[in-house]
Amino acid sequence: MDIKVLGPGCKKCKELEKAVQKAVEEIGLDATVEKVEDMDKITEYNVLMTPGLVINGKVKVFGRVPKHKDIIRYIQEEM
């Protein structure tokens, strides 16, 4: 599973990265969470506001940090 957290390193971006790591561990999923900070790569996903969450190439959410249960649901949708 390919999981990316998009964002330049702002507070919310770091918060989303930690939340995604926690969800991955909770599910017991063997996945690597990649932090993408390059703005050119972020705009390739048509994400205009960070943070963004991309799972298996699909943008699941951007511009906010979703609730824990929503992060788990996004991951499970792509399993």
What are the main properties of this structure?
single chain; 79 residues; alpha+beta; four-stranded mixed sheet; 4 strands; 41% helix
Structure explained in plain terms:
With 79 residues, the chain is α+β, with helices and mostly antiparallel strands. It contains three helices and four strands, in the order βαβαββα. It has a four-stranded mixed sheet. Strand 1 (2-6), helix 1 (11-27) and strand 2 (32-36) form a beta-alpha-beta unit. Helix 1 packs across helix 3 (68-77). The longest helix is centred in the first third of the chain and has 17 residues, at 11-27. The radius of gyration is 11 Å and the shape is globular. The protein starts with a strand and ends with a helix.
Shape: globular
Distance between the termini: 8 Å
Largest sheet: 4 strands, mixed
Query: What is the H-and-E element order?
Result: EHEHEEH
State the share of residues found in helices, binned by percent: 40-55%
Estimated share of beta-strand residues: 15-25%
What is the count of β-strands? 4
Tell me the radius of gyration: 11 Å
Unreliable stretches covering 5 or more consecutive residues = none
- Mean pLDDT equals 95
Number of helices: 3
Q: Oligomeric status of the shown chains? A: single chain
- Order of strands in the sheet with the most strands? 2-1-3-4
| Alpha-beta classification | alpha+beta
